[in-house]
Predict the 3D structure of the following.
Amino acid sequence: MKILIVDDSKAMRMIVKRTLRQAGYEDHVIEEANNGVEAYQMIQASAPDLVLSDWNMPEMNGLQLLQTLKQNKLEIKLGFVTSEGTPEMKQKAEEEGALFLISKPFTVETFQQTLAQVL
Amino acid sequence: MPPAGMADWIQALTDSAGEIAAMSLGFEECRVTGQACEDLLASPTDPAWVGAFISVQCREDALHLGLVADASGCETLAKALLGMAPSEILPEEDVSDSLRELVNILAGGVKRRLAAQENTLQLGLPQVVQGPLEVADLTEAARIPMTLGPIPVQLQIIRSRALPRP
């Protein structure tokens, strides 16, 4: 199983990776992308089982990544891990086809409960 | 509902910092150590201090939210965020990256808390600045002295006239 973490912050990618390990996903292959453009190229080359994407990023943001995947008929499971967790953004994410939205700051338990439903 | 006033922003920012201290930094103690100072111009930020700032576009104006500390405090905050031991070495660029992420989470918490009053808030991308943040058309500012765990920090709110929305 492969999980792709998309975030322009190296610090946050490290934190998400650590949280995945603590949540019991230490055996999964973890890949990282710096923004939506890089993530899209990586997905085209080798589709991951799940994408965990930030929302606000330069180049291509998380929502644009999700829309690009849809437009190109790439059926990839994607959830957001973002500092923005207002009800409007959760609704927008759902409407666009995201599986979930985890708000920062998050806990290991949040990852366990959320990912158990999609992996 | 009327737009959020400075007191609302101060409360939301302080509460968001408390949440981050406990959930992201692992600090049990987080407290406000003085009165919010609403005159940053009269007592500007120490030029040696480093701050991570993020712009927030509102209905009628624009703000910058900041998390400011001295260099040693910034490094300790970054190591706490990354779960590193104090003795481990963290490159300066990773300290800056961690500070940007911290202020990003901080602003997300503020946006969530003020959603009922300000449902059109848009967050920008965070930046790290040494010394005071230079802002054009400044109208109002506040500084909240706090400790996050053992680290003295300042939370800053800098309000200016809004930039036109695209």
In short: Residues 2-116 of chain A form a domain with the Rossmann fold fold (CATH 3.40.50.2300). Chain A has one domain: 2-116.
